[in-house]
């Protein structure tokens, strides 16, 4: 796999000449893992739910018909599937690998536990679960192009015998109630049309005592980092997308989709509304990403 640091020289400095790569990297490494926060049980400003948005929903900064978003998201990921791992390196400057290690470490993998990995794409979380000693896993994604990359990686890693690979819409999971011990979704929830439905479905398929985990880009909570992050997201990232994947538009959507995703407390409230309990979250890299978790009790 391409070394994420090899992209370092491709990022152009800002007009005043400061080294924004160094500033991003220094801040992100300094705040790479923050303490777990018990989300307060209080009302937060509502994130638009399916009932509130009517016939339209967000696709980045655009408002599109709800029934078209899945197709549009599918086209984005079909476009970038072959470069997806490189894309994550570009978007996070390689730090997503550390975030995923922290995420997998929180799952508490055991041989007698079963994992459902939603929007599992190229398989990083599923592979991490198995290598940590977890039981059988379902690697799922709505996009068959992404899954084919994950399946090929599993074959090369000798893990395919422990994995079911399934095309699954996270809003309507084809599993019985109370059938898995862990449900994960990493960098996928923001691309779902009906996020509330995903959370309800995740709770439904969890066994009592099971736990849901979400790793997602979130709301930056360090003021000094925000302008650097915005410059990276909207000035550099689309150019890198054009250079690496010949697709600036998809990278522009991905940057916009992060800004449209609910903040940490709003997502925590959505999880509680879906019936999950003891909801917590942990900021990573000053809130650039966050891990949310909740139990089915």
TrEMBL record:
PANTHER family: 2-METHOXY-6-POLYPRENYL-1,4-BENZOQUINOL METHYLASE, MITOCHONDRIAL, METHYLTRANSFERASE. It catalyses: a 2-demethylmenaquinol + S-adenosyl-L-methionine = a menaquinol + S-adenosyl-L-homocysteine + H(+); a 2-methoxy-6-(all-trans-polyprenyl)benzene-1,4-diol + S-adenosyl-L-methionine = a 5-methoxy-2-methyl-3-(all-trans-polyprenyl)benzene-1,4-diol + S-adenosyl-L-homocysteine + H(+). S-adenosyl-L-methionine binds at residues 122, 141, 169-170. InterPro entries: SAM-dependent_MTases_sf, UbiE/COQ5_MeTrFase, UbiE/COQ5_MeTrFase_CS. Pathway: Quinol/quinone metabolism; menaquinone biosynthesis; menaquinol from 1,4-dihydroxy-2-naphthoate: step 2/2; Cofactor biosynthesis; ubiquinone biosynthesis. Coiled coil: none annotated. Methyltransferase required for the conversion of demethylmenaquinol (DMKH2) to menaquinol (MKH2) and the conversion of 2-polyprenyl-6-methoxy-1,4-benzoquinol (DDMQH2) to 2-polyprenyl-3-methyl-6-methoxy-1,4-benzoquinol (DMQH2). Belongs to the class I-like SAM-binding methyltransferase superfamily. MenG/UbiE family. PROSITE patterns: SAM_MT_UBIE, UBIE_1, UBIE_2. It is an enzyme of class 2 (transferase). GO terms for molecular function: methyltransferase activity. It comes from the Bacteria. Its EC number is 2.1.1.163, 2.1.1.201. The lineage of its organism: Bacteria, Pseudomonadati, Pseudomonadota, Alphaproteobacteria, Acetobacterales. This is Ubiquinone/menaquinone biosynthesis C-methyltransferase UbiE. It comes from Gluconobacter frateurii NRIC 0228. GO terms for biological process: methylation. Transmembrane segments: none annotated. The gene is ubiE. Keywords: Menaquinone biosynthesis, Methyltransferase, S-adenosyl-L-methionine, Transferase, Ubiquinone, Ubiquinone biosynthesis. Pfam families: Ubie_methyltran. The keyword Protease does not apply.
């Amino acid at each position: 796999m391409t070394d994420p640091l090899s992209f370092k020289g491709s990022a152009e400095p800002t007009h005043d000449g400061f080294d924004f790569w160094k500033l991003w990297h220094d801040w992100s490494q300094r705040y790479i893992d923050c303490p777990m926060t018990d989300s307060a049980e209080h009302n937060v400003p509502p994130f638009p739910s399916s009932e509130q948005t009517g016939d339209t929903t967000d696709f980045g900064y655009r408002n599109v018909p709800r029934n078209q978003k899945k197709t549009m998201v599918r086209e984005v990921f079909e476009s970038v599937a072959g470069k997806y791992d490189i894309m994550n390196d570009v978007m996070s400057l390689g730090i997503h690998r550390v975030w995923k290690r922290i995420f997998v470490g929180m799952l508490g993998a055991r041989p007698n536990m079963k994992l459902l990995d939603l929007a599992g794409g190229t398989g990083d979380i599923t592979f991490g679960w198995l290598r940590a000693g977890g039981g059988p896993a379902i690697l799922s994604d709505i996009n068959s192009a992404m899954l084919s990359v994950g399946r090929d990686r599993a074959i090369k890693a000798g893990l395919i015998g422990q994995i079911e690979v399934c095309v699954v819409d996270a809003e309507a999971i084809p599993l019985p109630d109370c059938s898995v011990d862990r449900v994960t979704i990493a960098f996928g929830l923001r691309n779902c049309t009906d996020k509330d439905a995903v959370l309800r479905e995740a709770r439904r398929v969890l066994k009592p005592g099971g736990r849901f985990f979400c790793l997602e880009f979130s709301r930056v909570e360090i003021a000094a980092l925000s302008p650097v992050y915005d410059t990276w997201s909207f000035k550099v990232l689309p150019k890198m997308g054009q250079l690496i994947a010949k697709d600036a538009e998809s990278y522009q959507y991905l940057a916009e989709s992060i800004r449209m995703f609910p903040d940490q407390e709003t997502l925590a409230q959505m999880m509680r509304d879906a019936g999950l309990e003891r909801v917590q979250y942990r900021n990573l890299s000053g809130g650039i990403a966050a891990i949310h978790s909740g139990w089915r009790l």
